[in-house]
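Q: Got a minute? One more chain.
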Amino acid sequence: MDDQLYSKPLLKLAAQAAGAGRLEPCDASGSAYNPICGDSINVTLILDNHGSTKLAHETQACVLTQASASILGAYFVGDKQDIDALYEQVSAMLKGGEIPPPPFSDYLALLGAASHRNRHKCVLLPLEAVAAALTKS
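A: Always. Here it is, folded:
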């Protein structure tokens, strides 16, 4: 196992699984799938006039996707514009850019994936699922 890729902070985030589960009833749902590795995630959201106020995820994926989903489960509230901005920040970080600002600075734990381009999709998959849910709402 590559220690830089699978750091202790990354494994801790994945194990915490903040937001794991399903919200019933929910106002919106979305999913994303990575056909390369088989990772999948389904998200459910509670919405108000300003976007998501609560997020839950059912994640069957590698620890990179699990950790990313856990970060969103712990901190994400907002609308489609907010998730799109966070997607761009995380994507830029994986390409050598800045780490997203708090409360999303926990993405630092996923920085080991930056040198593994084929793993970027794993990190971004939960953000894609939330974007899909907010697009449908």
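A: The helical segments are 8-16, 63-75, 80-94, 120-136.
Q: Perfect, thanks.
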